[in-house]
Design goal:
The complex is a heterodimer.
Chain A lengths: L2 E3 L4 E5 L4 E3 L2 E3 L5 E7 L6 E6 L5 E3 L5 E5 L4 E6 L8 E8 L8 E2 L3 E6 L1
Chain B lengths: L3 E4 L2 E4 L5 E7 L5 E7 L5 E8 L2 E5 L6 E7 L2 E6 L8 E8 L9 E2 L3 E5 L1
Parallel strand pairs in B: 2-11
Antiparallel strand pairs in B: 1-3, 3-8, 4-5, 4-9, 5-6, 7-8, 9-10, 9-11
Classes of the chains: A mainly beta, B mainly beta.
């Protein structure tokens, strides 16, 4: 079955500390992987995406993610978290084919403490 | 210009009413989607249209009926609204086979059924 697992429901990080949000996927076809962020009451903003090539991808707001095929993982990282990063983070997997749709993980809530 | 626009942004209505949510995209994409985000923030695909043809129809009550008059528009009509329909509904679009494949989401419609 196609699925995305985000094992951490809620993470609290001190401002200035590093961050890693985990994502594991199960997908039959070549996966297209995405990370989205949703601030309270807002829509979904794309942070970064991976299709092929270099397995370390850079995104907006200083985020990066690493694709590891052997572990079926696509973890999101940031070296130094800012208070404004507090939000809901979603990992998603899809395929560039008609008849498919993005499958989302259940999200990880990031809180930032001062 | 907003790439994917949804109207209305907020919708408060009584149980039993019928309501519609409209979505328009000006990206020239061939595929549009409706997602439902429940109170636990989980995003689930409901429907997808490719060039006006319904291609994804997940297990959704038949009170929900999507309509795509052309490939730039995808509307969602809901009959006999129930309390459990309260959620945020997101419209999205994508272009099948694009080299820069990705989804563009609207800002969401928060539906509250009272």
């Amino acid at each position: 079955a196609q699925s995305v697992t985000q094992p951490d429901i809620h993470i609290t990080v001190s401002e200035g500390a590093s961050l890693e949000l985990r994502c594991n996927y199960s997908y039959g076809a070549t996966p297209y992987l995405f990370w989205y962020v949703q601030s309270p009451g807002q829509g979904l903003q794309l942070l970064l995406k991976y299709f092929s090539g270099d397995t370390l991808v850079q995104g907006i707001k200083g985020f990066e993610a690493e694709f590891k095929r052997s572990q079926s993982s696509f973890n999101l990282r940031k070296p130094s978290v800012h208070w404004s990063d507090a939000a809901e983070y979603f990992c998603a997997v899809g395929a560039n084919q008609a008849g498919t749709a993005l499958i989302f993980g259940k999200g990880t809530t990031l809180s930032v403490s001062s | 210009d907003t790439a994917v626009s949804q109207t209305p942004k907020y919708l408060v209505t009584q149980m039993g009413n019928d309501k519609s949510i409209k979505c328009e995209q000006n990206l020239g994409h061939d595929t549009m989607y409706w997602y439902k985000q429940d109170s636990k923030k989980f995003l689930k695909i409901m429907f997808s249209y490719n060039n006006k043809e319904l291609i994804i129809n997940e297990t959704v009550p038949n009170r929900f009926s999507p309509k795509s008059p052309d490939k730039a528009h995808l509307n969602l009509h809901i009959n006999s609204l129930e309390l459990g329909d309260s959620a945020v509904y997101f419209c999205a679009s994508s272009q099948t086979g694009a080299t820069n494949y990705g989804y563009t989401f609207g800002s969401g419609t928060r539906l509250t059924v009272v």
